[in-house]
Design goal:
about 425 residues, mainly alpha, about 0% strand
């Protein structure tokens, strides 16, 4: 990674000079955390699980719904913990627990009965209970505290983790399943959080001190300011964001998770689908960086609406009866590009419109519609396919959803100039990995 060298107007070290090591650690945390890994690998378990147990697509994709719903309802709690105890202990403990829980799926029984299915679901429940702290719910709070002038770009770099995961996880999953079976694939995937992200985060990741924070996120004494959660939910902006996020996530997640099976219906092989998912990852990467850079220069509405309309084109392409690799790659790129925009926006808008004092709780509350809609979307797409024999009906609905969801963000108005809130509280103690 090329680290921008910047200085503030008074010659003091700039945001990237102070915070690039933390950003690097957080990037790896997002890449190897519970946000991208489950959703990038589960579609590749459809064929082996169906062959071994005879489960339907809906039953096999259902763990994504289980995980997503549990994680979504726990997001405000983990956000509150990050506000109260600091990001570092919450993120590191959750990353460790996620890795252990992911590896435990390898212990799924071999018997072909309902007990096996329920055990499999139970292991995914554990991932939902412990994993949400290893997602951008926590990592983004730290980045918002280290960056303000370059916040959009920094968040874009942070959330490149999901695009990196989209590039590498499908290929690792396909290789591991072919060589070692689907059970061992989960154990292999667990090495990413346990042996890659956790050691780096242990040494490099931390909250900034008051002196290291950008002046713009605090008051005259350098203390954090911002709206409380109760203040945000009484305003119209929170509800517009909530509805927009729910609509776009509901349209996006099902298309993303089911993309390999959508492409299989078009006659493309699993290896080709993995390559297409790699293109989707590139789209997320480009979307992250471009969206972040644009958010630092322009009002979010001018950035968000056109970018969130791109996956409508994806829906049109996937409605075709005969989709070539090139067309599938274009569809995946547009879908990924918009995903990069949406995830950046949740973190960026929460900080800009509501401040940083209670960011964790507010972001967690805005993550709820993202997680809930994503979870329901994945199984809805699979259910429509099981019932109708095609994804066309849900793709038509998604076409309109992307346009409406993006358009709602045009109603948010200008960013607040300041916040009238109580000064921050001292961070309490929590058992630390340090």
């Amino acid at each position: 990674m090329t680290v921008p060298v910047d200085k503030s107007a008074d010659g003091a070290p700039g945001e990237f000079s102070l915070g690039w090591t933390v950003l690097l650690a957080a990037l790896l945390g997002v890449t190897c955390g519970a946000s991208p890994i489950p959703f990038n690998l589960i579609a590749f378990t459809v064929e082996p699980l169906s062959a071994e147990f005879g489960w339907s697509r809906t039953e096999i994709i259902f763990p994504a719904t289980i995980y997503g719903l549990i994680a979504s309802f726990l997001a405000p709690l983990f956000g509150w913990m990050a506000d109260r105890f600091g990001v570092r202990p919450v993120a590191l403990w959750s990353l460790f627990a996620f890795g252990i829980a992911l590896a435990a799926i390898a212990l799924t029984p071999t018997s072909n009965d309902q007990t096996t299915l329920y055990t499999y679901y139970g292991l995914w429940i554990i991932i939902g209970l412990v994993g949400i702290g290893s997602t951008p719910v926590t990592w983004s709070r730290a980045i918002n505290l280290w960056f303000f002038k370059h916040r959009g770009l920094a968040l874009g770099i942070l959330l490149l983790g999901t695009s990196i995961a989209a590039l590498i996880v499908p290929k690792i999953a396909v290789w591991a399943i072919a060589e070692y079976g689907w059970r061992n694939m989960f154990a292999i995937m667990a090495l990413l959080p346990l042996l890659v992200a956790l050691p780096v985060a242990y040494f490099l990741f931390r909250d900034p001190t008051a002196a290291e924070r950008p002046r713009a996120i605090g008051d005259a004494d350098g203390k954090l300011t911002g709206m409380t959660l109760s203040q945000t939910v009484r305003g119209y902006r929170f509800h517009i964001m909530w509805i927009s996020i729910a609509i776009v996530a509901g349209c996006y997640a099902g298309a993303f998770i089911n993309m390999p099976t959508i492409l299989a219906d078009k006659g493309l092989s699993a290896q080709t689908a993995a390559s297409v998912m790699g293109v989707l990852g590139i789209g997320i990467l480009v979307g992250r960086l471009l969206t972040g850079a644009l958010l630092d220069r322009f009002w979010q509405g001018f950035v968000a609406f056109p970018l969130l309309c791109l996956p409508a084109i994806t829906c049109v392409i996937l409605l075709g009866d005969d989709v070539s690799f090139m067309m599938a790659a274009v569809a995946a790129f547009f879908l990924g590009f918009a995903a990069g925009a949406e995830s950046d926006l949740i973190a960026y808008l929460a900080g800009r419109y509501f401040g940083m004092l209670h960011y964790g709780k507010i972001y967690g509350s805005l993550y709820m519609p993202f997680g809930i809609a994503s979870a329901l979307s994945s199984i809805l797409y699979a259910y429509v396919r099981d019932v109708t024999g095609s994804y066309d009906t849900i793709l038509i609905v998604a076409f309109f959803g992307f346009i409406i969801g993006g358009g709602l963000l045009l109603l948010l108005g200008r960013y607040p100039d300041n916040f009238d809130a109580a000064p921050e509280r001292t961070i309490d103690a929590l058992p630390s990995i340090a």
